[in-house]
Design brief:
With 235 residues, the chain is an all-alpha fold. The protein has one domain. 80% of the residues lie in helices and 0% in strands. The longest helix has 27 residues.
């Protein structure tokens, strides 16, 4: 498992993908941070910054996941993975954690921006910490979605676009409620909404149910990926 993890981690910086992701994310988050917080200086503006980052994830995170399994299929190296002395769960977890490491490390570097808030004011530390934790969990869930979709195709572009659509669906489901009359459907859409659950963290509330939800989404999509490869191994 660790060998696959190291190989995947290295591959991000052999190709341009890792550099593009890191540069694009840091630049985008820095611009959003400057607009939303330094020019406003209020907790509500900090909350807006974190919520806007969710939509950055929609575009940025598929860059990390689109190649994970799609590239193996295209390069015809998939069978080497399936016959390697590692469990399918270990294989899937190694690829997931490689992508997650790049994402989490990049996000933590971007947190250096928070120093400016303390230099020019007294920000709510609970909001910063809670929202950062929630973002890391949301990122994990989005990466797990991308891992699963990458396992279904050998085309990286299709994997990226499909991942964007699925993540976007999870983001905007609660916004559809104004167009739906059924209370049951509205409840279901609110339940699956990433954005709805994140808003508690953005305003300083620590939501255990949201944490369980994000972790469950990650495990569910990684489990589905393992099942895809269990079927492929024996077919």
């Amino acid at each position: 498992m660790f060998a696959i993890y190291k190989r995947e981690l290295r591959s991000y910086f052999i190709s341009p993908i890792g550099y593009i992701f890191v540069a694009a994310y840091l630049a985008t988050s820095g611009i959003i941070f400057s607009i939303c917080t330094l020019n406003q200086g209020q907790d509500s503006s900090v909350a807006t910054y974190f919520m806007m980052l969710l939509y950055v994830f929609v575009i940025a995170l598929p860059l990390l996941t689109m190649k994970l399994f799609a590239d193996e299929k295209k390069a015809r190296t998939e069978q080497l993975l399936l016959t390697s002395p590692v469990s399918l769960m270990g294989m899937v977890a190694a690829k997931f954690f490689a992508a997650y490491t790049i994402f989490a490390a990049t996000y933590l570097v971007s947190c250096i921006d928070f120093i400016a808030l303390y230099n020019y004011g007294t920000p709510n530390t609970a909001i910063l910490f809670g929202s950062s934790l929630a973002l890391l969990l949301v990122g994990g869930a989005c990466i797990a979605v991308g891992v699963f979709i990458s396992s279904l195709t050998e085309n990286q572009l299709i994997a990226a676009l499909a991942t964007i659509l699925v993540i976007l669906f999870f983001m905007v489901t609660s916004a559809l409620n104004s167009y739906i009359d059924s209370a049951i459907i509205r409840s279901v859409l609110n339940w699956v909404s990433i954005f709805e659950r994140f808003s508690n963290f953005a305003y300083g509330y620590f939501d255990i149910n949201a944490i369980v939800y994000y972790v469950s989404i990650s495990f569910a999509f990684l489990f589905l990926t393992v099942r895809v490869y269990e079927k492929r191994r024996w077919s």
